[in-house]
Design a protein that fits this description.
Blueprint (H helix, E strand, L loop, with lengths): L8 E2 L4 E5 L35 H24 L3 E4 L6 E3 L2 E4 L13 H20 L4 H13 L3 H9 L5 H14 L3 H14 L2 H8 L7 H9 L5 H14 L9 H16 L12 H10 L4 E9 L3 E9 L39 E2 L5 E7 L2 E7 L6 E10 L4 E7 L3 E5 L8 E8 L5 E7 L11 E3 L9 H6 L6 E2 L4 E7 L7 E9 L4 H9 L8 E8 L7 E7 L6 E11 L3 E11 L2
Parallel strand pairs: 1-5, 3-6, 8-15, 17-23
Antiparallel strand pairs: 2-7, 4-5, 6-7, 9-10, 10-13, 11-12, 11-14, 14-15, 16-18, 18-21, 19-20, 19-22, 22-23
Helix pairs in contact: 1-2, 2-3, 3-4, 3-5, 4-5, 5-6, 5-10, 6-7, 6-10, 10-11
Amino acid sequence: MRRAPLSGLVSLFAAVAVPAPGVSARASSAPAILGPQVVEGRSRVALRDEQDPDPRAVDAARERAHHAQRDFERERRRAFPRGAWYSGRCDELVGRFCLTHEGDDEWTPVPDPPAVVEGRARLLATLDSAAGTLPGDEWIIGQRVGYGVEAGEPDGALAVAHSCAGRPWWCAALEGYVLHHEGRTEAAEAAFDRALAALPPAAACRWRDVSDLLEGDDRSRYRDLACGSPERAAFERELWLLSDPSWAAPGLERRAEHLARRVRVELQRDAASGYGVPWGRDLEELTIRYGWPAGWDVDWRHEPGLGTERSIEAHRPASAQRFMALDVSRPDEPTRWKLEDDEPRSAWAPPGGVVSDTLAPQIAVFRRGGRRLVVAALDPPADCARHAGVYLASRHAVVARDEGEHRVLRALEPSTWEAEWVGVETACAGRPGRARARRPLPAGAPWLSDILLFEPGQALPGTLDAALDVVRGSNRVRPGESVGVFWEWYAPPGAASVTVELTRENRSFLRKALEWTGLADHRGERAGVRWTDPGAVVGRGRAIRLELPDLPPGQYRLTLQVQSARVGRVLATRELIVER
């Protein structure tokens, strides 16, 4: 007796390859979760009405529903389109499956052939008929909702969820599943929250669990937190906030997607699928990490000594991106916000289109009455609209925002030191999706603001408002041009020594070694000016015009140092990118 061979989930835009049953192939052992083993023993037994229908009719209706679902998925697999020759490459083993990270940018979903569309319609009719005999059978309710969404009939699926006669948590979860599919994130989250509140605590904890999405120190730290504890809840809330594709859109879209994937897992526990194999923990993990496939096709692979095998590949959308953005070991590293990854632990394609992290606004922090005022100036990409927003977030929620049709935005945090993160976003007119930039919100020095770059004119600005009228939209400069530098000084009046210095950052290792040994001179890559500020300028704003030398292209660090007898020495820095 030969087992059904199982191989590879091709990850980034590629596939889960599952050879057809009855063909030999290597497979790792992994326990399958079969039958009605559902969260907290969810019942699939019909809820009898007062007439107590004939048990034989009940069993027959249930059997017809299960047979119809299996027959439809079998027919669907026969109709899968022909794909490419599968290479057999394997990057990660997940139970019985081989996860392969290879680009499949050329793959596009193929519409269902008429036979599949008609077969799904017949299946839904059979399920509807069975629901008349078994109105409280949760398996039938779930399949009606799942296939209704798949058939492009969300209104009908939502009506089934609203009239659901199953347990309250399951009915609410199905409602959230449909609402999330329709892009109604806030309503979906509200439905999912009702489901979680109705579940027993242990089951709710399993639904909230995010350990399959985490790696390294994050995974270890999360697993050390007690299930249901306030500390774990805070971890999850911060994770979903930082992983949300857009802070402009209401709700936490990535959290809603995670809970929708949990619903999908429940729908598949005792059901056939395009994978063509029994459900198991490995398929549950892959569904939680990468979602339900966007489509399948049939490929062929060659195994030495075993010959040519037919396999099924399940594809993810080419626009799937990495959104999980928590890295406690490197809180200030830009990798925590990275959206593109050659080997993502998880991926998702938001319905609003691809999110780009290439936006490079100029962000600066100033002080107003013990709170921080964040200003953001940006030059949007050519294909992006002028509508933009700046967002301040605590560890659990967006606490301040400014949005509008202008390139300079300001957001004042509601209370002292409430905000932890700052994000800037803009909608893109020439393509779907958004461009964004996110980073930790700097605390800054108590007596000195951030540096703000501006275009210098004949008169230098003495106030922040005046500087924002001529602010630059990025930190990119050209060799030899004039750059205005504005800052605010909050110390008591008095004389202070001011130094502005520009230093090249990205010198090669060999260059740095030669400078250290004295065989090369670094003075040609450092420029600066120093003067004494008497503190007699009206207001707190200070500004200078900086004439850049003919610098080679590269990354530089602009450092502002102010030193006074009252407060000592304080620094502010800004990165400059010199481009020809």
